[in-house]
Every structure is written in C-alpha cells, then in structure tokens.
Design goal:
Elements lengths: L1 H21 L1 H12 L3 H22 L1
Helix pairs in contact: 1-2
Length: about 60
C-alpha cells in the first residue's frame, strides 16, 4: 500500500510540473485567474476534482 501511495504522489508531482515546464506563461496566467475566484468557486473546483478522482479510481480498480 505504501508503495502505491508513493508512486501516486510521484506521478502527481510529475503531472503538476508539466504545465510550468512546457508553458510557464500560460500556467502563470491561469494561476492569476485562479487567485481571482471566490472561496466558493475554489471549493466547487476542489470538490469536482475530488469526485472525478474517486470515480476514476472506482472505474479503473
């Protein structure tokens, strides 16, 4: 289980680093837009992301 969690975390770091590496200007502009969202909007995005991740885990397991 620990190996799977570490592998998932490593993959997360790789995926998080792709955008700033390939298109730093686009990533920066996107980040600026995120800063302008309200707390409720950010919570909705976070909830949607978590639900999509749970659904993907259930589908692929």
């Amino acid at each position: 289980m620990t190996d799977s969690l570490l592998a998932a975390f490593a993959l997360l770091l790789v995926l998080e680093g792709v955008m700033p590496f390939l298109a730093p200007r686009v990533w920066r502009d996107t980040f600026r837009r995120l800063l302008q969202l309200t707390d409720g909007q950010l919570r909705f995005i976070g909830l949607s992301s978590m639900l999509a991740g749970i659904i993907l885990l259930m589908v692929f397991r």
